[in-house]
Specification:
The complex is a heterodimer. By secondary structure, chain A is an all-alpha fold. Chain A contains twelve helices and two strands, in the order αββααααααααααα. In chain B, the strands form two sheets. In chain B, strands 1, 2, 3, 4, 5 and 10 form a six-stranded mixed sheet that branches. In chain B, strands 7-8-6-9 form a four-stranded mixed sheet. Chain B is α/β, with parallel strands linked by helices. The chains are: A mainly alpha, B alpha/beta.
Chain lengths: 293, 430
């Protein structure tokens, strides 16, 4: 006689879920709802008066050339940082994985900066690229390049990219290396018999097998480039020069916290929320389909 | 059982002694050496009497301190005293019922108050349109011109009094291979204090004192002339623009890459210790062509605001502390240890008498500049969302000196964007 597997409906699973749901509600749903509410209000910072202004806050941000530029910067910056961090890390991981002797020395040095906080990376970058005492500034100057972190938006963006990528490569490196090591040696061995070209084997065997790791890292890296680089931007350029490195997140912080314009800042965070939702949808709809687990 | 009884008795004894003391908190933004000086002042105040106890708490930068204060106020957890910088003054003064005017708090607790005791440039900055002082000026500084005496002597020139002189000096310094000057905080030095020095309005509605201002006087002929000159000097290599970062503009002066630096009078203590050359200090330059009778500048820095709605006893403690803080001895101690100016005349006289200015003549320049004759427009300014407006200024000036837009276009942009923000602020404080 077959015993039927059936879950009886008890309150226990819900009770177990409550703490998690409560945390998400308090730290995500409630603030998000509050942000949506505030984005339709004009409020003084102290919370003494609050007026409903309809879509005025959205109207202001979408008619601002500065805001549109900030969107372009953020998207461009995120793509460049994610691509470079992933590409460099993958290259290093593949090379480190093939090394037979002294493997751990490479592994240690390449994961060295794993735990560096973005703000700390930014401060270090600030010293290295400082216009008056920076080592790299001097090197660039000796090559005839008048590098200027604080006055040239291109140089500032380049510095941000370098520092952000440097900080992120080691994180990606760890995951890629783990991914490579989980690929069965038998598969590689079999491929080696059939195909002589290293490059071809990489693109037809290793890369597809790494795709789940790669997809996970792509999501993580885009999130990093969108949000966590805030620390690098705040400590290195503060969104300047000429507003050229103001990312969406940095602008929300500056308008809301420094500028105390709560309504305007809330409207921007709602827009960002929608952008992130769209991006997540695109990622899972189109990219994940091509990933085979 | 016996043990419990003893602990209970002990606890009640301890709590009664604690009860006798009224505790107040003071959130400030003074880091490093300045923070230690703040702690010393608080410690001395606590040691002097046993009725009140003040606890200073460092809350980060000016912005972080104000943000923390706002958040705490919204949650009914505000400190008794909050330090707010000049740019944030409008945010707190325009909020009805948030800050209790220092004048009221002192008088109600039985202390005498006369705003004439305060140095002219300090008196009105944190006051309302009737001259009633709302915030207690605390760390006050003003922009001055620092110069490298060695370089100037080599070129055979004197420190310039006016921008016309400065242009002549620049030619000679250029011949010696030196850039003439850099400056830190463009909106503060080249807009606000430019206006004050020449007795020109900063904003409409009486510089924002009568009602929230809706327009700043940035897109004006005097500003256009001044910034076009700066741009011309930048092209000729007289003026070096190192971006909006404070230190990036101060360092070249310390490293003798530029001969002069326009910066805060509060910086002289640190500068003196760091530079290897003879340091000179003088008044902020002005244009003879704009106003021959140039006068005083505004104070920068920050003030202390007493948060309203606290128990009577705590307000008395705040009053007692303010009274201690403005005593000539405390002021002189603060002035000497930090470089910020004394806020009262009595403290200035006491410092003079102590012979301090004979050894440190540079320390007096800021106070003297703030005591120069003033006019209709030198009381101060009150601008809503002003730190955001300053951001816009930094952005546009970055673009001007990087040759991306013209001065006229930049000023028009600032004018347009600041109007939007000021109008929003005016509506939000209704």
């Amino acid at each position: 006689m077959e015993q039927r597997q059936q879950f009886t409906h008890s309150a226990l699973p819900y009770a177990l879920l409550v703490p998690q749901i409560a945390i998400i509600a308090v730290f995500f749903f409630y603030p998000a709802a509050e942000a949506i509410y505030l984005s339709f209000m004009l409020e003084d910072p102290w919370g003494l008066s609050s007026t409903f202004v309809g879509l005025e806050n959205y109207d202001i941000i979408f008619s601002s050339a500065e805001y549109l530029r900030s969107i372009f910067f953020t998207v461009g910056f995120a793509i460049v940082v994610s691509f470079l961090s992933l590409a460099i890390a993958l290259l290093l991981a593949v090379k480190a994985n093939n090394i037979l002797h002294g493997k751990s020395a490479y592994k240690i040095t390449l994961t060295w900066v794993y735990a560096v906080a973005p703000a700390v990376a930014g401060i270090m970058g600030g010293f290295i690229f400082n216009p008056h005492i920076g080592v790299f500034t001097d090197i660039f100057a000796s090559l005839g390049w008048d590098f200027s972190l604080y006055t040239n938006p291109f140089d500032a963006t380049l510095t941000l990219v370098l520092v952000s990528v440097w900080k992120q490569v080691s994180v990606n490196f760890i995951y890629f290396l783990a991914g490579l090591q989980s690929i069965s040696y038998a598969v590689n061995e079999a491929a080696m018999l059939d195909c002589e070209s290293d490059r071809r084997r990489f693109w037809t065997i290793t890369f597809p097998l790494l795709a789940p790791t790669g997809f996970f890292l792509l999501v993580i890296n885009l999130t990093y480039a969108f949000f966590e680089t805030f620390g690098v931007i705040d400590t290195l350029t503060s969104g300047g020069p000429g507003g050229g490195t103001t990312s969406l997140v940095y602008k929300i912080y500056r308008d809301g916290f420094i500028g105390t314009d709560i309504g305007g800042s809330a409207a921007q965070s709602v827009v960002l929320l929608v952008l992130v939702l769209m991006l997540t949808w695109v990622q899972f709809k189109f990219i994940e389909k091509r990933v085979h687990y | 059982m016996k043990k419990q009884l003893i602990t209970g008795v002990l606890a009640s004894v301890l709590s009664t002694t604690a009860m006798a003391e009224t505790n107040i908190t003071w959130w400030h933004a003074m880091s490093g050496q300045l923070g230690e000086t703040v702690n010393t002042i608080a410690r001395d105040f606590n040691a002097l009497q046993d009725e009140y106890k003040i606890t200073p708490v460092f809350k980060g930068s000016y912005v972080e301190t104000l943000t923390a204060g706002i958040a705490a106020y919204r949650a009914d957890q505000a400190p008794n005293i909050l330090q707010v910088a000049d740019v944030g003054a409008a945010t707190i003064i325009n909020a009805p019922g948030v800050a209790k005017p220092v004048e009221d708090i002192l008088v109600q607790s039985g202390y005498s108050f006369n705003n004439k005791d305060y140095i002219a440039g300090v008196r009105n900055f944190y006051a309302d349109s009737n001259g009633k002082m709302i915030g207690m000026p605390f760390n006050s500084s003003t922009p001055v011109l620092y110069y490298n005496k060695d370089i100037l002597a080599k070129a055979g020139v004197e420190a310039p009094k006016t921008y016309e002189d400065l242009e002549q000096v620049a030619k000679k310094l250029k011949a010696q291979g030196y850039a003439t000057f850099s400056q830190s905080l463009t909106p503060w030095i080249m807009f606000e204090n430019f206006k004050s020095r020449h007795n020109l309005p900063v904003a409409n509605k009486n510089n924002g004192f009568d009602a929230p201002a809706t327009n700043i006087m940035i897109n004006t002929p005097d500003m256009a002339m001044h910034f076009n000159k700066l741009k011309e000097w930048s092209d000729k290599g007289y003026y070096k623009y190192y971006g909006s970062d404070w230190d990036a503009n101060q360092q070249p002066f310390e490293k003798e890459k530029v001969a002069m630096w326009l910066g805060s009078s509060g910086s002289f203590g640190g500068l003196r210790n760091r530079v290897d050359f003879e340091l000179g200090t003088t008044y902020l330059p002005y244009w003879k062509s704009v106003n021959k009778e140039a006068g005083r500048t505004f104070i920068g820095g920050a003030a202390l605001f007493a948060i309203d709605g606290k128990p009577q006893k705590e307000q008395q403690a705040v009053a007692a502390f303010f009274s201690y803080l403005t005593s000539p001895e405390t002021q002189m101690f603060w002035h000497k240890s930090t470089g910020y100016v004394t806020v009262t005349k009595a403290a200035y006289e006491l410092t003079k008498k102590s012979g301090y200015y004979q050894e440190q003549p540079d320390a007096e320049v800021g106070v003297k500049q703030l005591s120069l004759p003033g006019g209709e427009w030198t009381r101060g300014y009150r601008l809503g969302f002003y730190s955001q407006i300053q951001e816009v200024m930094h952005r546009e000036f970055d673009n001007v000196f990087a040759d991306r837009i013209t001065v006229e276009k930049a000023l028009a942009n600032i004018d347009k964007e600041s109007q939007v923000m000021l109008n929003r602020f005016a509506r939000s404080v209704r």
